[in-house]
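=== RUN LOG ===
request id: a7f3
mode: sequence -> structure
chains: 1
length: 242
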Amino acid sequence: MNLFGKVAVIYGGAGSIGGAIAEAFVAAGAEVHLAGRTEATLRAKAGQLGARYAVVDATDEQAVDEHAATFERIDISVNAITDNDVQGTPMVEMSVEDYLSPVVTSVRARFLTSRAAARHMIRQKSGVILFFGGTGDASAHRRWQLGGLLAAFDAVESMRRQLAAELGQHGIRVVTLQTGGIPESVPAEHREPIETDIVGETLLGRAATLEDVGRTATFVASDWGRTITGSQVNITCGSVLD
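=== RESULT ===
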């Protein structure tokens, strides 16, 4: 599979998930553009990969639209921004602002970036919009004290289904990479207990890696994944069953 000739924009491209997808896309031959809010990390990641970058706040409507307008075409749009979530606090002790923060951030950012990309893709009669997160019947233990994160994931999945239904007639696919947690994306000082929890919930006795994320994203975005739209691609190693 390859992405030669494809133009990919990755929001949150300097983060661990976005960076892994960017690395895989570059290896597959795509022209990759990283977007995010922190120039230093964007510059470093872009230099490492030989990609291009722009400072863009994915929750800023004008910034997203102006950035998208600089492209002649967009073939792949990936939104891997973090959701500004507060975890580890019981809901009954949370403020409404903390609970709603990931919902508002996630929905707003993914709506704006998807809309901007779709306007290009409709003219082209092709394109792939890719999200990261997903939902499913995870165990009660894994749902413990996650704040508004799962509500945000549910809202984005509703958006994904609606986008796929509206955009399919234009040859545009909309897909979510469904995660059960990627231990490598967790800061090293907090990783061990979280990795134990994530791996313990899987059927395979291991968690997906950042390399797995990049490879799956490349497959989905390529012509090899051309039959997949309106759905989640499950990379949970069995912690969530379809």
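=== NOTES ===
The first helix runs from residue 16 to 27.
The chain has seven helices and seven strands.
=== END ===
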